[in-house]
């Protein structure tokens, strides 16, 4: 009796099919929405997900200014960055950052959920976040993605 040999098919750049999705950030919780978007950027929603290959889709987030934080995070969450100069640590609360640059709140949350290497930087380039309902990606015919219904 002969043994059957099955080989695993790994995805590669030639076999990956990328779709475009639009996510409306209106009344979405920041962390939960961003976790689902990060999984789509990585390609974890596909049957042929391969960890060492970028199999993810493109995601366009609109209405970034309408996302919500749970609890007291709006006043207590601190975003900080270092300018590179002595004493150059800058801190800003989530409410101030959301008023000033609401797209950065979503971008930073998603970037922190992606791998910290070349592959993660490549996945991050497929994310587009916009304030308001208009975006310039109409030619790609993105599909509406309802993350509230995607809960399990």
Q: What report would you give on this structure?
A:
- It is a single chain.
- This protein has 152 residues and is α/β, with parallel strands linked by helices.
- The protein has a domain at 20-70 and 110-144: Ribosomal protein L13 (Ribosomal Protein L13p, Chain: A).
- The chain is 27% helix and 16% strand.
- The strands form 2 sheets. It has a 4-stranded parallel β-sheet with strand order 5-2-1-6, covered by helices on one side. A two-stranded antiparallel sheet has the order 3-4.
- The longest helix has 13 residues, at 30-42.
- It is globular.
CATH topology value of the domain at 20-70 and 110-144:
Ribosomal Protein L13p, Chain: A
* CATH structural class of the domain at 20-70 and 110-144: Alpha Beta
Largest sheet: 4 strands, parallel
Q: SSE string, helix = H, strand = E?
A: EHEHEEHHHEE
Task: Please summarize what this structure is.
The protein is of the alpha/beta class and 152 residues long. The chain is built from 5 helices and 6 strands, in the order E-H-E-H-E-E-H-H-H-E-E. Helix 1 crosses helix 4 and helix 3 crosses helix 4 (102-111).
What is the element layout, followed by pairings?
Blueprint: E1 20-24, H1 30-42, E2 58-62, H2 73-76, E3 78-82, E4 89-93, H3 94-100, H4 102-111, H5 118-124, E5 127-129, E6 143-144
Parallel strand pairs: 1-2, 1-6, 2-5
Antiparallel strand pairs: 3-4
């Amino acid at each position: 009796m002969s043994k059957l040999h099955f080989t695993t098919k790994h995805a590669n750049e030639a076999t990956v099919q990328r779709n475009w999705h639009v996510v409306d950030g209106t009344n979405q919780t920041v962390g939960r929405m961003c976790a689902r978007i990060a999984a789509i950027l990585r390609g974890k929603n596909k049957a042929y997900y391969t960890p060492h290959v970028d199999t993810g889709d493109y995601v366009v987030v609109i209405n970034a200014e309408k996302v919500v934080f749970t609890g007291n995070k709006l006043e207590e969450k601190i975003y900080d960055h270092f300018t590179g100069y002595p004493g150059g640590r800058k801190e800003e609360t989530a409410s101030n950052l959301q008023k000033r640059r609401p797209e950065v709140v979503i971008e930073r949350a998603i970037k922190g959920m992606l791998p910290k290497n070349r592959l993660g930087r490549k996945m991050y380039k497929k994310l587009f976040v916009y304030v308001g309902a208009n975006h310039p990606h109409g030619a790609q015919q993105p599909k509406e993605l309802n993350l509230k219904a995607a809960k399990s």
